[in-house]
Amino acid sequence: MLPLVKNQTYSYGTGIVHKFGGTSVKNAERMSAVKDLVFNDTHAIIVVSATKGTTDALQQALDAAQNQLPIDPIIDPVITAHALLIDTLLSGEEKSRLRKILHQDAANIKNILSTVAFVTSYSHKIRDLVLSYGELWSAQILSAYLAQDRPAYYLDAIEIIHTYLYQDTLAIDWEKSEACLNEFLQQHPDALWVIPGFTARDSSGRRTILGRNGSDFSAAILAKLVRARELIIWTDVDGVYSADPRKVPSAFVLEELSYHEAVELAYFGAGVLHPKSIAPAIEHHIPILIRNSYNPKAPGTLIHEQIKPPQRSIRGISSIEHVALINIEGAGMLGVSGFAAKVFSLLQAKNISIILISQASSEHSICFAIPSAQAEKALAVLNEHLAFELQERIIEKISVDSHCSILAIVGEGMIGTRGIIAKLSQSLADAHVNIRAIAQGSSERNVSIVLSTQDINRALRAVHGGFYLSNKTISIGIIGSGLVGGTLLEQIEHIRAHLAQHEGINLYVRGIANSKMMRLAQQHLEQPDKVEERPLDLNVFAQHIIAEDMPHAVIIDCTANQDIANHYLTWMEMGAHIITPNKRAGSGDFAYYQAIKARSKAWGRHFLYETTVCAGLPVIKTLQDLIQTGDEIYSIEGTVSGTLGYIFHQLFTGEPYSQVVKQAKQLGYTEPDPRDDLSGMDVARKMVCLARELGLATTLSDVNVENLIPEPLQSVSVEEFLSRLPEFDSLMQQRIDAAKTKGEKLVYVGAITGGG
């Protein structure tokens, strides 16, 4: 622990260090908001980033100069934007002074870039010098703006933060830095000090930078030097989220994190915080608060030591994209000591960073993840220096997949908790995501997995829901908006809130279609009539429902359409589950039926068709249960058509056949064309479905069907059929009378007997 300087007037442990990111100082309006946020601080250190986009523009200018491309179109807009800031916020001498500094800096930058263009290269010292200008400008403008109302001073970070290199690693000279800071703080103890982030002094006295996102690190260094009461990092989001809200809409702001949790989440891609910014705060137990300068009423996320016992096993989920997975395998590696060390030394020599390592105890293979941008260089290095091992078959192959991502789950609650990896694996399996590699440290706070980049959004949502950080979300597409589809929509609307609150399930109907048109929505179709219709395209419809960012998708076919049923296999392969009362797939081509059943098992897709027979009655499920428990089914017989059941019941009340059919159609009991029911094919299809449950290779051609449509009316229009049906009432009445004479009733029966 560094000794405090005696007899100093600055009150240690009472000050606050504020750090404002680029979006928080991007224009005059935001700098005005900064003034409001620090208005009540009697003494504080304010660390600022460059205004949004400035550092990127300076880097682009460097690269353009190196390639001998024009730099003025890049530099001039940056200078103009800062001149506008000065003109808007300042006046008088300060305005003139800073404008002069700005234009002198612009001239210096252009001179440097002219030299870069001449030699077509630049050193890291040139890069550090050019990139640091953004922070220098924003800090000088903000300090001058604050000084209009209260004591505020600009202090260049190179006057305080001293660094040196230790084995190619940038290190902070803490003792020298503290002595320098003390000197300045004693001059004006009750004041605001505005300091540019990102930049520091190296051991030779030149300006250097602390790396991208280095302003966070600058603020943490200063917080440690003054033993700050608190380090507040102001950004443009409400805090650290349980997952990236752009990929997981149900992600929420975490109330608190431990230092260790924050380090893990920051390392694996939580963009609001840099891992380096946490380490300086740990030694003196300095709380770090992540807050939103655009929404200062939000409480933010508190990172500290004494966190409450976790309510969930994991705290949050993070991810890194653009990752390459390199795999080295070969039987000759078994028991060979130092092989891994050799591999990693080769990569270190080329400054290739390793993100994750995984090796099985068999030692037959070792795999590791690196940034995709370094994959080609890494593969070339390994092939060159392991040529002998490859030639002698000590190594069988070195492979690389540059299209990977890493997902990490983090939380203090994981320590000692059984089943974490099992739950992680099950959540991914349910979302049909394959794990390429996995690693867990002995601290148990982090489990990291490598998976294909195309699966990352779906994986994040599945894991977020699987660990009950959010509801499980199901993307639903409904085809057929008639009586069945419309009733289903009403049922979903009725139960959605209950399922979300009590079962942790979000039902999102994201698409509705009929035979000609469709409506699509990114979330849930709350009011379908207000969503623009577009012509039906089944491929577009399916791709929308089976989105990468939705872990679970289901298409519900409420039609009796053969063409829709012909898409089931394709949709299942794309990742959808199928629910349907459509009997076409279950009773149609037998080879297609077998393929659906086989693929649903192989791909882990649900093919749910209970309502193809007897509507909501569990006839098919009962059959399956009987068969799976060893029972043998000898015969099935029954009236399986509700429509025909109603028609024959009404006929026995004395109403004529034609009148009963019209009445059934008006009540919605029949298909739009009642002949679809009266032909008996509906019953035939149901019996084929049941026969196939018994293991019979039955097709429609095997079924004897009695057609209830008079032959002259079988091919006419629906209107003509209904108008002429009374001509044939007497034929049906004769059959009704004959049944009554025997004391019987006429019903339409389906039967499976003797295996057929």
Mind explaining what this structure looks like?
By secondary structure, this protein is α/β, with parallel strands linked by helices. It has 28 helices and 27 strands. It has an eight-stranded mixed beta sheet with strand order 3-6-2-1-9-11-12-10. Strands 22-21-20-19-23-24-25 form a seven-stranded mixed beta sheet, with helices on both faces.
Features:
alpha/beta, 756 residues, 28 helices, disordered N terminus
Distance between the termini: 88 Å
Number of DSSP helical runs: 28
Question: Radius of gyration, Cα only, in angstroms?
Answer: 36 Å
The largest sheet, given as strand count, sense and whether it forms a barrel, is:
8 strands, mixed
Based on secondary structure, the structural category is alpha/beta
Spatial order of the strands forming the largest sheet: 3-6-2-1-9-11-12-10
Uncertain stretches of 5 or more adjacent residues: 1-10
Principal-axes geometry comes out as elongated
Q: Percentage of helical residues?
A: 40-55%
Assess the beta-strand content as a share of residues: 15-25%
> What is the mean predicted local confidence, pLDDT?
88
